[in-house]
Amino acid sequence: MITKAIYPGTFDPVTYGHGDIIARAAKLFDNVTVAVATHPSKSPVFTQDERVELISQVFSHLDNVSACGFDCLLAEFAQQCHAQVIIRGLRAVSDFEYEFQLASMNRALMPHLETIFLPTSTKYTYISSSLVREVAQLGGEIEQFVDPIVIKALSTKINR
C-alpha cells in the first residue's frame, strides 16, 4: 500500500522549520503533498501560486514531495488527494492544544484520516513565517531561517 500524507499550512514563507518537517515526512511516507492553504483572515506576502512555486523549487531534490494549493476544508482536500495521513508540525507544547482540536475535527469529518504530530528539531522551534517576514521587512538578515530561493523572492516582494 502506498501511504500518502499531506502537510498543510500557509507557508508564507516556507522556513527551515517547515523544511525539517517536510524532509522527515518524506522519509516516513511514500508521497508527501505540501498543501498550501488560502486563509481568509490572513494577508499573505506571497500569493498561493507563488508559495506553491517556492516550495516546489526548494524541495525539488525530494522526489516524493510535491506542493499544491487548496481552498476548501482540509478533510475534503485530503480526500481529493487520497491521503491517509495529515502531518502537523509542533514547535512548542503551546501548539498542541490547537493542533489537537484540529485533529479531532478532521477525524470527526473523516474517521479514516490519521493525524501525525512531528515536533520540529530544537534548533527551529523559535522560527515562524511571521517572524521571518517581520525581520526581512525591517532589513534584518534571514539566511539562517529560510532557503536562498526564499530570500531572493522575499527581497523582491519587500523592495517593490
From TrEMBL:
Keywords (alphabetical) are: ATP-binding, Coenzyme A biosynthesis, Cytoplasm, Magnesium, Nucleotide-binding, Nucleotidyltransferase, Transferase
- The residue ranges of the Cytidyltransferase-like domain are 6-134
Which cell locations does it reside in? Cytoplasm
Cellular component aspect of the GO annotation: cytoplasm
Tell me the route in metabolism or biology where this protein functions. Answer: Cofactor biosynthesis; coenzyme A biosynthesis; CoA from (R)-pantothenate: step 4/5
Q: Which residues bind ATP?
A: T10, F11, H18, G89, L90, R91, E99, Y124, T125, Y126, I127, S128, S129, S130
Top-level taxon of the source organism = Bacteria
Pfam families the UniProt entry points to:
CTP_transf_like (PF01467)
Which BP terms in the Gene Ontology apply to this protein? coenzyme A biosynthetic process
Q: What class of enzyme is it?
A: transferase
Residues marked Transition state stabilizer (site): H18
What protein is this chain from? Answer: Phosphopantetheine adenylyltransferase
